[in-house]
Amino acid sequence: MAKARVKVPKSVKKGEVFQVKTLISHKMETGLRKNKKTGKKIPRKIINNFVCTYDGKEVFSSDWHPAVSANPYLAFYVKATKSGPMNFKWTDDDGKVTDKSVNISVSG
Amino acid sequence: MRKSIQGIGALAALAVAFSAFAGTAFAGKDKMNFGKYQVGELRTGYTFSTPETRAIQDDDFENPAFLWVDVGEALWNKKEGKAGKSCASCHKNASASMRGVGARYPVFNKKLGKLQNLEQRINQERVEKMQAKPLKYESKELLGLTMFVRNQSKDMPINVSIDGPAAPFFEKGKKFYFQRRGQLDMACANCHVDNPGGMIRANLLSQGQSNGFPLYRLKWQKPGSLHRRFRGCNKQVRAKPYSYGADEYVNLELYVAWRGQGLPVETPAVRM
What we know:
The complex is a heterodimer. Chain A is mostly beta strands. Chain A has strands at 4-7, 12-13, 17-24, 47-54, 57-63, 73-79, 84-92, 97-104, 106-107.
């Protein structure tokens, strides 16, 4: 099971641009490596999509490719609009989804 | 026959690499101020890392090793085994009870009559106090718990004891460190005492300090124990590596820790 970490500020002011940091444990198997013993290719298994939603909108999304390192770290910026949940979704090649949600607390 | 020729070829290449690069990479860096990562002549692997690698370590969040530390913290609080206990049942808050512990290991264990490292101590606790199964060396669980426990001593100076009953084991570890081995016939000291700051193939050699272990290696794409590093360094000179947890490596661990006595615990560090 992939483990995910997310970091956002404890509270932000309305209109402020704040940083969101994410990290997920994942092998990000490229599909290009061979098993040293059998010589067979190890099947590709990566996270191919990441989406972040906040205040009912998709605020950040990206498609990932086999060159992304294992245990990928991603940071991006979001503008504070109102208090509420921020949701994160990492999608695996096999369709498995890792979800995470944090609360954004907006003042002013 | 073929093997030995390869060995000689590689040895010649190493010698060339040393003489060609030693000094150049080091000279500028020598004048840098490495803050807590340098104590007198002692410098942790951090000071030999690239700025990009250092930046990953500098941010506890960006440092992927903390995914494993989280696994360790969860295990600390998880009841397992026939005694129905977790580490926390007895030790409560790790930030108080485990503070300083990781900086003192490996230690002489009276009952075993030999040295014991932190991984082995954790497993002893599981078996004897929790009546739970020991964790496998290099598993996510044992790496995680070891990193979690050692992280409680972050920034505390390495402070191992080498006298009294530990003395003969320390001597063995020291002997291992200076013993030439493998087809390349090189000792740990040939690289980490004689040549820190020099290049070996594509790697900048450090003093080979252990204060950041278990650490995340970008090359491994995951964390690894000090014994994994020892095995890698043995294999580099085409010597037969010892198994994980072998007495030889635990003795060596004490000598290597003592070489870095006073350096801050950096666990979990990040390296190339």
